[in-house]
Amino acid sequence: MDAPAKAGWDALVADPAGALVALDYDGVLAPIVEDPTLAVPAPGAIEVLRRLAERVGTLAVVTGRPAAQVVELGGLATVPGLIVEGQYGAERWVGGELTTPEEPAGVTAARAAPPAALAAAGADPAVWVEDKRLALVVHARRTADPDAELGRLDPAVRRVAEKHGLEPHPGKMVVELRAPGFDKGGVLRRLAAAAGSRAVLFAGDDLGDIPGFAAVEELRAAGTPGITVASASPEAAAVAERADVAVDGPAGVVTLLVTLSDQMSE
After folding, report:
1. Among this protein's residues, is 24 annotated catalytic?
2. What is the pLDDT of residue 195?
């Protein structure tokens, strides 16, 4: 842990009430699984979130999934005061109340396009499209070589995005088409500003989390201590390289959060 990261950690421990702790869901709190509907929190994850909720000023899950879906799947309603920012900040769930915008016109117009474009490009039958209402996601996880398959389909996917005013965002064995203006960096900046956070931790595992890391780095440069944590995996080595600290998957994240909670209690 280098000096800026150590300063971020020490600031979190010294001032829990001023801390913002924000975490991705898939790959960070919950192991990645082939069927996303079966992605439940790692052992100990909910318990340590409850402990942190009693200590930190702001505790948030920042995810690309729909907020209500993550709350139900993860049992997150049992964590007092937790904020869930869904679909890269387009949705917010807090205290049982969900705020969600109208469906973007580009998504409405594009809804039928990805399956047709993928079929025309000769996509592997194991490729499938998830409709998140505010975004469309092309999944290649079930193919023999997800990265190669997505690379081959990239021109077709980009044509669909360009035609309908959407942005293609690559991730771990997926590419998401969503309206411009939403990323985890914007969410982190907004949360920190709203709470007046005096120290920040953000943990992620995928390319979509790198804007969140960048936001922590910007906050740090402006005087707010912070630390970035990667839940490391072979599929997204660039994420671990960018983070201050890399841990071994969701189990490693839970261990780190337990350590943080324990030190905050000392």
Report:
1. yes
2. 97
